[in-house]
Amino acid sequence: MQEALMQQGLDITLFGMGIVFTFLLLLVICTTIMSRVMTRFFPEAEPSASSPAPALQSAAGNARLRKIIEEAIKQHRNRRK
To answer: CB-hemisphere CA count at 13 Å for 40?
Structure first.
């Protein structure tokens, strides 16, 4: 009786692990296929050469941004007091 219960428990465990493994394998396969379909039919647009890179922003823009950040920090610190 004890051996039959142990065998049944082992069978159920292996069956469950097999189902989970099969599901995960199908999930990986479907994800890979969808990824290939999306990259083939909907490729990412190439960045246009006319848009300036963040590293090439003007010095005036950087100074303005610095002032905005400084003011935001001051307001935040004043609210915490």
So the answer is: 6
Please tell me whether the overall predicted TM-score, pTM, comes out greater than 0.85 for this model. Answer: no
pLDDT in tens, 26-48: 999 999 999 999 999 988 877 66
Q: Considering just the CA atoms, what is the radius of gyration of the chain in Å?
A: 30
The CA–CA distances, whole Å, from 74 to 3, 16, 23, 61 equal 74, 59, 54, 20
With the C-alpha atoms ordered 48, 52, 54, 55, is the resulting torsion angle positive or negative? Answer: positive
Residue carrying structure tokens 């990986």: 28
Q: Where are the alpha helices (DSSP H) in the chain?
A: 2-41, 59-80
50: which DSSP letter?
Answer: T
